[in-house]
Design goal:
Four copies of one chain form a homotetramer. Chain A is α/β, with parallel strands linked by helices. Chain A has helices spanning about 5-20, 45-50, 110-125, 150-160, 170-180, 195-200, 220-230, 260-265, 275-280, 280-295, 320-335, 340-345; strands at about 25-30, 35-40, 80, 90-95, 100-105, 130, 165-170, 185, 210, 235-240, 270, 300.
Chain lengths: ~350, ~350, ~350, ~350
């Protein structure tokens, strides 16, 4: 649509698309709104739409993914995250000038543990608290998370510390429960091609954090996001968390090259998770710096007040002092790229 | 348990285990029954059980997987598959002397297409018909399968051709529907770590065919099976279907070495899928021979009466003449290893 | 060239090619001789050659490799290996009906050790003795081989046991020495893209066994062979020995799919090395069976009279009894494919 | 050795080691000299050395690599590179405060092409000029470099532009020629385990740039460096240039996590090559930033005055304006880490 197109014009174009039996996806941007079409069995004639008021141009998408593509929407998507518990935490926008840091323990273990971590990460400039209440674990006999009890603790963290909450949802039936407590729904790497789950979160009102699968190509990663957008939820944040290779000095190989590759092909923001991406505590901070310098829109970092006592993933988890150091370095590198963190804002 | 242990003795041991608050898993073998214990928070004293009547020995399992391990059950598991529509097809046993071949098209497209494929694969010695009614596709815009309509066609195939049915189930909610039509529930590679689905099929009365994930280590593969067994379903058939590597002459790299590796560590049977494992029609037969020679307990092969018109995966699908040639070669190699196929039996 | 083309006609075509400033490569086959052209800066006009006596057709090669391609030579190459010490061992032909087995210890350690292994592998049907006198080791402090002293022991093995000798050569300067003792020059996986070495063995009169590099694509593998052929040595035997992947249940992942893939694209024979390909003794025999069933033209297997005392690679080395069992199984599978081993011949 | 140990004391310890039949490797650091011992068949008694004057402590190395290990030398190695043509270019130290940038075209094509590139990269702050005179190419029919003629052009570049020269040497026989022209000998990724070449450059007086092999583990990478040090050349600069994985959005996957991993285990400096590491022009600058932020001691970047006309690798090569932009960003990120580039120095 043209930058000056009115809401009514956008609605009229969408109505026209729907009247043809297709699905219209209006995705607003800073300057103008893009409207994607899905459900068409083959190519459509651009002239069908180009004569409608407010339409700038009709573009035929050549990629297998459509709605996530820059061909459909050339402007960067800004994903606004709002606290579901109104007023509990400030909004945060992922994909804009602010580099958004999500931090917290691997799992919710107790109120005390979460409060300790939340206080620390808030003080260092994190805006979103991460912790798992439902944990997909390789072994059926490992700790699987506290479930709803854990979600309730996360809701307390939001209100008490003013942090937004991101936590994993593990199957379609589980989404409704997680939606009641979380501000961002996380789809984990193992579930990146769990299409039933992708469709379900695609029908949610919450933004989704989608982690790259361990052996997902870039195209598969974007197609997974496409599943979510195709259901009408355009608020997807991608996350690189390391892929599986022969290399054994880290648990996974953090593929930072996917960051500029995503930005070329898609309008969606992408953050990096150097904790899972390396699996080793002493590699987290260097790779966090590297991810920000490469162009990541944010970070997800595991922090625990006492990592050596964590029930899961302790060996890749920072303590508060290490996280504070990380944030100081990340803030300085972000500034070089014209970005800022909440840490900087807090201190002004 | 001792070979001569009575059913009452097995039941008594199980009751003792349950009375301690743990879970007992009785897995019968050709010679003797193994009883696995899960739910224990730490090591148990072997003496708790060794004095009970019928107990041969109590073994502490050292692997992260327990019930799938040879430490718990040293005899090969024989997985008996029965037609859910009684009398519609002969029972088949996977893991025994017979090399079991499962064949059919990628997707159920129509009754005619399935009947044509079923007639052909039956004539060449297949025992199980494979075809997808629910298809997990990389793109949300690709053909996603006929759903229940497809399942009904599969039920007709069973009755008409005397073939057992294996078909994929894609999420926990979907299992109940697939159970009503299929003799074996397939969990696809993309869902190998979909733990909600694994737990759900673990509570099913149907045998499960579990495909190895594209980047799953052997330990992760066995742990995924453990999820199913830990819920009480001990009838799991593993399937190697290629892993993701840098190699680009095939779509995936079929890792035949996992077959003897599984047999060393686990009592579960394992088959190979050279169709997905290579992704190229002219590589399917050589690798089918290779898989059988390496020790696979069976094969899963894509066959379509007219592969070039298949809606999905046509380039890796054999036509009936190619499948007939494959079966002839496979039968001869199986004979070298002291195994037979239904093809041989049919002709005697 | 036409099947009935005379030697003089072949020579005349070669002379014509050379007169144009290019290089001619005459490669005889069972039915007819193929002549490859290299050194041309761009496409040549087929009419330049098609009118010459004896020429069947002139084909423009579309692959990046030329001389190794089936486009240039459609018939399988039969690589004849002759004992350099005339009469010491019977000729063997790789790529024909006989499945050629090369076996022996990882390294030459002593005359006694080699004699013990040679006697055993000969008795079980091996035709070629393998053992390293120059060992490329990951550590500069590991045993690097006995050097020329080792080569002398290998020459004794040839005369005493009637086995041909294959051994590794590690750099261009080293080739001349190895040529004086070995019947086949081996280029190891780490040197697959050591182009100086490839060029040097390309000027040798000895057949070359070229191992696939640990992360070599099929195209790179064939291009490495092309380096050898482009220098005039057309006697190249390829060898799959496992590639590097994330999988950790074997040391490498033996990629048997490369066997039919090579056969589609190239006329060169290919054998498999299940010892390096798995790195684990109990996986060697199953994968040897698998390789033969998939279509390998031969095997390379590590055998030591007392593997647990081997100076290198003992954990992947068979003892004579294990090798005898392997050969029995391999012979039976080869028979299914219409092939035989020397073992069978010896017993007739 | 103790910080205050005299040269005579160092010499005396070395003499003692040699008198025992072992080899002594004195590696000076900023504060103190480390002396490594190789050639010992097994563990030595620390007391043999701890009583000698100037010795601080004797440490038994537990890693398979010794001389490259931080256990032997805890201080970072500073590798000083001097122009072999005295006074032609300023010395540069790799591993210290300065972030050293090596830039230039893939291959030497002509004097004009090199001068154009050299002028540009010098102006933007590069200290070392890179260009290949001997090119290891996948195809025997591709341009293989100008050879000595190319080396002579590089020598002119050094004198005319005051840039040090790094260029690849491809086999042991070739080293002597390259030594006569280059200030740093490059060992390419394909030759990382070409042990004959490693030993030969280990006997050179020139520093060596060692690129990581495409599927080399960290241990193999360090062991390759150990080959060089074990021959007495302690001036080794490591270089990460991407590894081979399933990912296809870049030509290789640049593994930045190896940078902090090397720094933990070894005292050697490590630089990154984002040109080969990504293989795509638009990914080079983001990954250059990422590498510097992660802790790389320098960069190697392909720059050509007219990349689209380059004879090789043009698609991954920057033009001068792109390189100037890269250097500006890299300088700013280096400053955050307390490092500087020659660019900054030039402008002060």
């Amino acid at each position: 649509m043209k930058p000056q197109a009115s809401g009514a014009e956008v609605a009229a174009v969408c109505a026209r698309i729907e009247s043809l039996g297709f699905r219209a996806h209006a995705m607003p941007g800073a300057q103008r709104t893009a409207i994607g079409i899905t459900g068409n069995p083959g190519p459509l004639d651009p002239e069908l739409f180009e004569m409608l008021p407010g339409v700038a141009e009709a573009i035929r998408v050549t990629k297998p993914y459509k709605l996530v593509s820059r061909e459909v929407k050339s402007e960067d998507s800004l994903i606004r995250v709002r606290a579901i518990d109104e007023g509990a935490a400030e909004d945060v926008v992922v994909g804009g000038e602010e580099l958004v840091v999500m931090a917290g323990p691997c799992s919710v273990e107790s109120r005390e543990q979460c409060f300790a971590a939340a206080g620390a990460v808030k003080a260092s400039g994190a805006r979103v608290f991460r912790a798992g209440a439902f944990k997909p674990r390789t072994s059926p006999y490992s700790f699987q998370g506290l479930g709803e009890e854990g979600l309730k603790i996360l809701a307390e963290v939001r209100r008490r510390y003013g942090l937004l909450i991101v936590t994993e949802t593990i199957d379609p039936e589980n989404v409704e429960l997680v939606e009641r407590y979380a501000d961002i729904l996380q789809v984990g790497a193992r579930n990146m091609q769990n299409y039933s789950l992708l469709r379900r979160v695609g029908r949610s009102a919450r933004p989704v954090l989608l982690k790259r699968g361990m052996s997902a190509t870039l195209e598969e990663f974007l197609m997974a996001a496409e599943y979510i957008l195709s259901e009408g939820n355009y608020n997807v944040i991608l996350c690189e968390r390391g892929v599986r290779t022969f290399a054994d000095h880290t648990r996974n190989t953090l593929d930072l090259s996917v960051i500029p590759a995503v930005k070329t092909l898609s309008h969606l923001p992408i953050i990096a998770d150097p904790s899972h991406g390396t699996g080793k505590r002493d590699k987290v901070t260097p790779l966090a710096r590297g991810a920000v310098a490469t162009g990541a829109d944010g970070l997800m970092v595991e922090v625990h007040a006492d990592p050596d006592r964590a029930l899961s993933d302790g060996f890749q988890t920072l303590n508060p002092a290490q996280f504070e150091a990380l944030m100081g370095q990340v803030e300085a590198i972000a500034a070089v790229l014209g970005r800022r963190t909440a840490r900087g804002a807090a201190r002004v």
